[in-house]
Amino acid sequence: MVAVASMQRSSVGQVFAAKPAARRVAASRRVLAQAASTSVKRADVPLELEEIGLPMNTFGPKNPFTGKVVSVETITGAKATGEVCHIIIQTDKKIPFVEGQSYGVIPPGTKINSKGKEVPHGTRLYSIASTRYGDSFDGMTASLCVRRAVYVDPETGKEDPAKKGICSNFLCDAKPGQEITMTGPTGKVLLLPEDPNAVVICVATGTGIAPFRTFWRRMFMENIPGYKFTGLFWMFMGVANSDNKLYDDEMQALAAAYPDQFRLDYALSREQKNVRGGKMYIQDKVEEYADEVFDLLNNGAYIYFCGLKGMMPGILEMLERVAKSKGIDYAEWFEGLKHKNQVRVEVY
Predict the structure, then answer these.
(1) CA 251 to CA 35: how far, in whole Å?
(2) What is the pTM of this model?
(3) Catalytic residue from among 71, 102, 127, 130
(4) Given a cut of 50, is residue 32 above it in pLDDT?
(5) Is 306 a catalytic residue?
(6) How far apart are the first and last CA of the chain?
(7) CA 146 to each of CA 76, 93, 102, 157: distance values in angstroms, whole numbers, following the listed order
(8) Which of 38, 245, 260, 343 places its Cα 20 to 30 Å from the Cα of 158?
């Protein structure tokens, strides 16, 4: 079966909408982290972090790591359907990770469990949104991409503060210097291919873009003598509207600087129509390039999926429909991709 990691998130199992941002950034919605410009210069990095192997659960709930917030910035616009924050955390190289992994965050406070006992809140997993070197390229920080979750009663349309996402609100409301209780790193599904000449197709919805940001920064923004990416990176990103785009300035700069290696396509469900006249969802955008995507996969490309688990049925149905239109035995074809580890899925 496809390698799938189901991650406990603060928004799982509830009808969440996003709270309007309390603080808005400038129109460019720049990230406080160093953003790419159209002339991208690769940053030197502390290469000792190339020797860390694959760290796994270095810290756990019983022996957590304490990080400190450096900054919290809203990176969605005024008309976004939800607020997403980019959070930079000081780690001082003490909880190292590799690109594609996740951290756990344990929010402060307690809850009453099913047995009526007061216990600490559980760990929430968040895909890390920076490379091992952090947004400042010195390895001293790591970044998270977090959507603020609130519960809206579907009948009344009103917010219920008692049911808001505990961890996401804690993180989005955090102030510089505030301590964050962390676990991890964890995850081995969304790791980069070892081949630096690989074709890497990434399909994300919302904050599922976080691990893929680590990919493109490692590929194009860092000077790593032992890793020179010579392949193709293709990002498919699905969000509701243009104000929901995440890290767009960074991606546009890279697409301009590396037009033969960096491709970017958006599915904006509330602004675009698919070929059938309906809303443009992520599977519809991928289908527009079905011939090319299938050719790349048949020649060894890797395809990654990350986001809400609801994205996968539509994508799999689309792949099966396209395969049949090409006279391909879908089950055999897809099983072959999985067997060669070309399909990598992490949904929540």
Answers:
(1) 9
(2) 0.88
(3) 127
(4) no
(5) yes
(6) 17
(7) 11, 22, 12, 23
(8) 245
- 28 an active-site residue? no
* DSSP assignment letter at 192: P
Which range has the worst mean pLDDT, 148-162, 169-183, 301-315, 332-346?
Answer: 148-162
Which are the contacts of 235, defined by CB distance < 8 A and separation ≥ 6?
202, 204, 209, 212, 216, 251, 262, 263, 264, 265
Q: Identify whether 39 is a catalytic site residue.
A: no
Annotate 327-346 with DSSP letters as a single string.
Answer: T--HHHHHHHHHHTT-EEEE
Q: Are 5 and 342 in contact (CB under 8 A)?
A: no
What phi and psi, each to the nearest 5 degrees, are found at residue 16?
-105, 145
Name the helix (H) or strand (E) containing 238. strand 232-239
Structure tokens at 260: 């033969």
From 85, 172, 202, 306, active-site residue: 306
Q: Are 30 and 163 a contacting pair, CB within 8 Å? A: no
- From residue 315, alpha-carbon distances to 133, 192, 310, 311 in Å are 33, 21, 10, 7
Contact 69, 175 (CB under 8 A): yes
Tokens, residue 317: 């149905």
Give the distance between the most distant pair of CA atoms in the chain: 59
Which residue would you say has higher pLDDT here, 133 or 24?
A: 133
- Three-class SS state of 251: helix
Token pair belonging to 82: 């939800």
* Alpha carbon distance 19, 5 (integer Å): 27
Q: How far is residue 297's CA from residue 287's CA, in Å, rounded to a whole number? A: 14
Average pLDDT of the residues in 227-234: 98
Q: Phi and psi (nearest 5°) for 66?
A: -110, 110
Paired tokens of 56? 């796994």
Q: Which residue is it, tokens 């049949």?
A: 324
Structure confidence at residue 116 as a pLDDT band (50, 70, 90): very high
pLDDT in tens, 241-258: 999 999 999 999 999 999
Look at residues 208, 241, 259 and name the one whose alpha carbon lies nearest to residue 80: 241
Look at residue 6 and give its three-state secondary structure.
strand
